[in-house]
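[scheduler] slot 2 assigned
[scheduler] job type: sequence-to-structure, two independent chains
[scheduler] chain ordering preserved from manifest
[runner] begin chain α
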Amino acid sequence: MFQAHRTLALGWQVELYTVADCKELVRQYMVPKLGPLYSLDTYLDSARLDASVGFAEQALIEHHHPCLNDRFNDDPAPLPERYKGDDGGKLG
């Protein structure tokens, strides 16, 4: 996608989040799925950072429904028209 639309892509804005930044989304999307033994204290435990990053990623995808993420994304946003080429926006 980036290579095919390099001119537009160079203007894309990227947002970076810390594990702590994602705490409320993890509370909303992940804690109910993980059951009563999982809490935000567990999520913020630095010894569990790898798992916390994965849960943050999943919560962000479930919340924002990005068009290019298909994991954890039952309802991806449509690909913007400006990125649809002769192949109808299909990737790969």
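[runner] end chain α
[runner] begin chain β
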Amino acid sequence: MAGKVGRPKTNGVKPGIVLIRAIFIQEAFIRHRQKGAKYEFAIEYAMDEWRTQFPRSRISAATVKRILAETMPEGAEEILIASKPEEKTLDEHGREITLTVKEDDRPKFLHPSIRAKK
């Protein structure tokens, strides 16, 4: 027998770029939704930002939706959220912090017409 055929077993282990992409996409999506972009446009903006930062890496709307479903499941009260700091901050080694990840409430995005009434 020559060996097993098909994809090798990874036992759920994924490359680090998968986590980086998930954090990047989630942060971009949330930021654009909080600015008032509709769902589909926020997905497009997140894809555009990913393609700008990583031009050789491909990403589709379906991949973005899958990432959002994994990182922000419906009905979850708390999720891990990545966000950019308001001000330029440095870590203990003097390096600039570009993203922070924390456990927080799942964001609720209001329709722009409802947001305008408040």
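[runner] end chain β
[qc] chain β: DSSP finds four helices and two strands in the chain.
[scheduler] slot 2 released
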